Amino acid sequence: MDDSAAIEKCQNGDKEAFRFLVEVYQKQAVAHAVAILGNREDALDAVQEAFIDAFRAIKRFDIARRFYPWFYVLLRNRCFKMTAKKRPADNVEETEILAPQSNVSSEEALGLESALLALSVEDRELICLKYLDGLSYEELSERLEIPCGTVMSRLYYVRKQLQAKLIGKFH
Amino acid sequence: MKVMNEINCENTILAMMAVMDGEEIFLSSEQTTAHLEQCENCRREFEQMQNTDGFLNKQTRRGQDADLWSAIEKRIDAQTETASLIGWKMFLPLGAFLVAFKFLEMMPERDFGLLFKFVPLVFVVVLFVFLKENPFKINTELGLEEVKI
To answer: I need a labelling partner for A132 at 20 to 30 A (CA). Which of A14, A30, A53, A156 fits?
Structure first.
């Protein structure tokens, strides 16, 4: 079954078809939510809520479009609502956003993770989508619903902020 | 893509950043190179940016295990159950109550006092609370109608 077949079935009330979509996209969604929220526990809640929102709204989904970018809008709405209530922990003991790398020391990885967590939610989301998902300016613009020029200037300022935080941590 | 005509520090750095990101930009490499050669600040800033970029490029997203279907299924089932309860039949008692209330109100030479007038309002609020819908904020929380599909 592919996405559009599953969505078509969902639109006719097929719950099993929705299960297919959940199983395909849940890991990716949790990883994105962790990047926004900074912790896995809240991310799981946000993803669950976003899938419920998607199930409710799927009848209005245009089958010609891709599922995940549409779902991502619902997911970030949920995450942003949760971040309004909570803020990420200051002390990072383990990386939740970044995967351990053989060529990066754990100290550097923890430093980068805490620098990411010190950014605003929107900035962290942007930088994670850029570097961890490798999205182009055009894709970022589509995903975040902002013009390409704004993507560029925001990336510039976020990089500068992150640079300053990293210099503060490692020098 | 961004059209840039003016060669200044900001535009040069933005152009260099876009080139570093593999994006197209309408500022010739001769123009940026010429600016970088004469501007030490831009050279230093671009060098720092490249270092940060190199460091960030080494990173990957941590894989996340998740099996949310059973929890999601429970929620969907619960909602379907509630939705079937919140059919038009739920509003029958409300209608009957309001009609009865109106008849009582219309009875001649009977004054039930000011509080009596608020009874329907209280009844409606209680009904909405029971249905877990705030009568004043219905569907404003998600704004799903506004989602661009």
So the answer is: A53
